[in-house]
């Protein structure tokens, strides 16, 4: 019966685990630094998709730092670091990039969490089991967006295992304003209000944007391809002239990826970038944490701003793009609070990356790498 269901599902949703693996292979084929890719077993028949670079020559530069571990954002995977792995491998003895549990090509167990705490634990438990399996004593944990939120949850649960927490455009930091501004109904059309109400209805019942991609079946590749094209393959790169509407929507365009392809440094055809559809259309699992963690207005149920300051995380650095749609002020407030902890002066900082938005590691890879070096320049363990 399961085989028949999978066959029917693939007829309606034109993807499969095999097609996702092939798409990932083609994306990662542009990485020049040698890496090892494995499915790390964490018990209970679960695995974490992992790539690892080892550069003994970087040990002198690395100053015996902990391994650097990269956590992707929502709806993403290890392939989103394609413009970063080579540069980071040159500077760090050990670099790991993983697909979070329930995401990418890691195992996708049934998501049973009903509360925010259970949703966070779903990821934290898997990450800790992965660390134990690889026998890593400590990690420099770098998470992007939702991955930054999960990295924070892990660091607060296991502070002795995180030597430095780097949060790149993290979601879930600010507290919700006491009285959120209500949208002006008299200024919005009936169609917009109906669409908004539908989105709220679906969100409150646990649906995610990826659920929609699966629901529309064979039509799904078109909107995903359109978004990726507009977001990453239309130039020139956005700078100061970005419109507020575009910046707030997180749809600022970037020529970084296209330029690297056009100049021959990357051998990935533009048409292959559209295969990110396969990442979005896999059976749902970890993605269902999103409505448990975030409200429909994208404020967190349990914001990091209220928690990180009381944690024992030793060092925290926030990254934001100079036209990031995430709340930079909330990041700065959290930094100020962290630095007021006893014996924790200057334990936290905030770095703004120029010519970058939310997807800073793709918008401005060199600026992103420089920010990491800056964050770690006075890092000691």
Keywords:
381 residues, alpha/beta, eight-stranded mixed β-sheet
The spatial strand order of the largest sheet comes to: 1-2-4-3-5-6-7-8
Distance from first to last alpha carbon: 54 Å
Fraction in beta strands: 5-15%
Run of helices and strands: HHEEHEHEHEHEHHHHHHHHEHEHH
Q: Poorly predicted ranges (pLDDT <50, ≥5 residues)? A: 182-186, 233-258, 264-269
Give a quick precis of the structure.
The chain has 381 residues and is an alpha/beta fold. The chain is built from 17 helices and eight strands.
Verbal overview:
The chain is α/β, with parallel strands linked by helices. Helices cover 40% and strands 13% of the residues. Strand 7 (316-321), helix 15 and strand 8 (348-353) form a beta-alpha-beta unit. Helix 5 (116-134) packs across helix 6.
Mind sketching the topology for me?
Elements: H1 2-12, H2 17-28, E1 36-43, E2 46-54, H3 59-62, E3 68-71, H4 85-91, E4 94-98, H5 116-134, E5 139-144, H6 146-157, E6 162-168, H7 190-204, H8 209-215, H9 221-232, H10 244-249, H11 256-262, H12 270-273, H13 277-280, H14 290-293, E7 316-321, H15 328-338, E8 348-353, H16 360-363, H17 365-376
Parallel strand pairs: 3-4, 3-5, 5-6, 6-7, 7-8
Antiparallel strand pairs: 1-2, 2-4
